[in-house]
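Renewal narrative, Specific Aim 1. Our central claim is that a sequence can be written position by position from structural information alone. The example that follows is taken directly from our test logs and has not been curated for this report. It begins with the structure tokens describing the chain, in the order in which they were read.
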């Protein structure tokens, strides 16, 4: 796609967005024109977004395979649940604006690293780092950026391990490397982040109340961090069920090959 086509594509998507938002008279387009524009511009734009859905499917498969393998070695599955999403056009446009970047497909590909997002929720912190190690050791996964907000929490109290990685997706005639943001966190961290996210986007709340609740959440984050640590310590003290059995995936594979 040429730059000009990209520009047209995004600005058309924006016009449609405005239209949907009720500014139709300002844009002087009628419903038929809107449908024509949707057919012409939104359909190819959807295929651009579709690539990120494919990358999400690939990434989820990687984690599902690891989850299965881990369950053969360790006591239980490390992943409790996964949530994935492709960033919607409105959030993309907002993010581009906040970074003063052009509204083009090229600009999205280059600058928006979390178009595809996979959140992996585990019970224990140890599982997070184990999954990270296994994911990054796969030869089709390239680490672009790592932010360890578990070791270094944000001032808000936010904790999670963020990995920006690139993985290939195989199309009909093409292979394309797609960037995916992987967020790994415990159930407790997820519980906290979801509530804090709600507070952040509440519009009908006065500043004083907002500050008060933010302070409370910073306090909750500390409690949660200590809870995660204590739960990990309890698990570490539990007697192992698999004494004498393979303790790592490598050992398990060796065991399978030699017996
Ligand atoms: P959404 O809707 O969750 O996708 P960047 O993405 O690099 O331009 P930033 O803030 O440097 O921006 O990236 P960072 O710190 O890695 O955060 C990216 C995502 O982590 C956010 O996505 C949130 O999902 C989550 N996150 C980061 N900080 C916080 C926090 O303080 N509280 C909560 N609840 N979540 C946080 P988006 O794009 O903000 O939104």
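The sequence written for that structure reads:
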């Amino acid at each position: 796609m040429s730059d000009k086509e990209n520009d047209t594509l995004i600005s058309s998507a924006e016009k449609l967005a405005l239209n949907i938002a009720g500014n139709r008279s300002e844009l002087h387009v009628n419903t038929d024109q809107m449908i024509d524009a949707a057919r012409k511009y939104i359909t190819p734009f959807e295929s651009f977004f579709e690539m990120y859905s494919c990358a999400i499917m690939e990434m989820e498969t990687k984690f599902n395979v690891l989850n299965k393998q881990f369950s053969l070695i360790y006591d239980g599955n490390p992943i409790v649940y996964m949530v994935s999403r492709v960033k919607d056009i409105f959030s993309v446009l907002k993010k581009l604006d906040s970074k003063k970047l052009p509204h083009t497909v090229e600009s999205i590909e280059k600058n928006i690293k979390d178009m595809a997002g996979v959140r992996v929720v585990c019970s224990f912190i140890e599982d997070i780092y184990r999954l990270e190690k296994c994911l990054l050791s796969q030869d089709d996964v390239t680490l672009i950026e790592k932010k360890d907000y578990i070791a270094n929490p944000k001032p808000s109290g936010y904790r999670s391990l963020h990995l920006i990685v690139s993985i290939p997706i195989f199309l009909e005639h093409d292979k394309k490397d797609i960037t995916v943001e992987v967020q790994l966190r415990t159930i407790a961290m997820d519980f906290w982040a979801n509530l804090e996210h709600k507070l952040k986007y509440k519009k009908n709340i006065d500043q004083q109340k907002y500050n008060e609740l933010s302070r409370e959440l910073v306090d909750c984050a500390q409690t949660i961090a200590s809870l995660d640590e204590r739960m990990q310590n309890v698990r570490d003290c539990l007697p192992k069920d698999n004494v004498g059995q393979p303790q790592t995936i490598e050992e398990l594979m060796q065991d399978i090959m030699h017996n």
